[in-house]
Amino acid sequence: MKAVIYTSYGAPDVLQIIEVPTPTPNDNEVLIKIHATTVTSADWRVRSLSMPFGFGLMSRLVFGIKKPRQPILGTELAGEVESIGKNVSKFKVGDRVFAFSGPGMGCHAEYKCLPEDGMVVLKPDNLSYEEAAALCFGGTTALDFFRRGNLQSGEKVLINGASGCVGTAMIQLAKHFGADVTAVCSAANIELVKSLGADRTIDYTKEDFTTNGETYDIIADPVGTAPFSRVKNSLTADGRLLQILAGLPDLLSAPLISMTGSKKVIAGPAAERVEDVQLLAKLAASGEFKPFIDRSYPFDRIAEAHSYVDTGRKRGNVVVTLGV
């Protein structure tokens, strides 16, 4: 099969498309023929080792000190079940599925094996492969942080950096849970976030949400520009800051802030649960959640997709297609 590999950390030009052996599923695994995958900020960070402050050494220990331990990037996919292990009962050959491999990565290839009890779910009929491939990264992150932040119906939520992958997912899911949503983005993305359900918008180039006198029950920060020191006066008395992108100092200070005052900081990596992937499929099937696709690239131009993601200017999701 064809796969995109990298054998050293760096810019998109470290990526190569080569032939590698097609994997064979273990007894409890399904082999998925991939029709679409994504390039996310996670792929950029792991490929280039561009990590939040304080995580440089730790990231090398996790992903490989001198070179990548897992040479194939990609955390999301959508495709068809090609074959199954002898003990698999949840899926059959020909099933159309989407899946989230998470830190294991490996989705930038023509085939991927995953355990049947992993984060593999039947694809909603109303979504294309491209849309289904983009369900998980932003969606599972949003669900986990809203759960940890104890989001309640009727609460005021501000999303700082609302036009990216996680931000666009957060708008839709916060509305699903009954929140009043304010989206912070550039003027160019105002109409996008409104179309996803934002009740109010703030153009960050013209207004600083931390100085306008408004307070919010939850402030979600997927882009890492709203530390507690900056936003504490914009939180209600028992408000919660969701630091999706937190450096090591923020991660270490979060428990102390939460223990010594009524305002809370929730930080750290998002948990991955198959129940969340199933919920995203259900919401997508009902039309309540739909990933926004910014750009789509063919597989042989995946380095261009990485280059675009590297700019930090993508909106929603960037998808890569294989043979569809």
Account of the protein in words:
This protein has 324 residues and is of the alpha/beta class. The protein folds into two domains: 2-135 and 291-321, Quinone Oxidoreductase, Chain A, domain 1 (Alpha-Beta Complex), CATH 3.90.180.10; 138-267, Rossmann fold (3-Layer(aba) Sandwich), CATH 3.40.50. 28% of the residues lie in helices and 27% in strands. It is built from ten helices and 15 strands. It has helices spanning 41-48, 56-63, 129-133, 136-148, 165-176, 190-195, 228-231, 248-260, 274-285, 302-310, and strands at 2-5, 16-19, 29-39, 76-84, 96-100, 111-115, 120-122, 156-160, 180-185, 200-203, 216-221, 235-243, 264-267, 293-298, 317-321. Strands 3, 4, 5, 6, 7, 14 and 15 form a seven-stranded mixed beta sheet that branches. Helix 4 crosses helix 5 (165-176). The two termini are 16 Å apart.
Question: How are the secondary structure elements laid out?
Answer:
Elements lengths: L1 E4 L10 E4 L9 E11 L1 H8 L7 H8 L12 E9 L11 E5 L10 E5 L4 E3 L6 H5 L2 H13 L7 E5 L4 H12 L3 E6 L4 H6 L4 E4 L12 E6 L6 H4 L3 E9 L4 H13 L3 E4 L6 H12 L7 E6 L3 H9 L6 E5 L3
Parallel strand pairs: 8-9, 8-11, 9-10, 11-12, 12-13, 14-15
Antiparallel strand pairs: 1-2, 3-4, 3-6, 3-15, 4-5, 5-7
Helix pairs in contact: 4-5
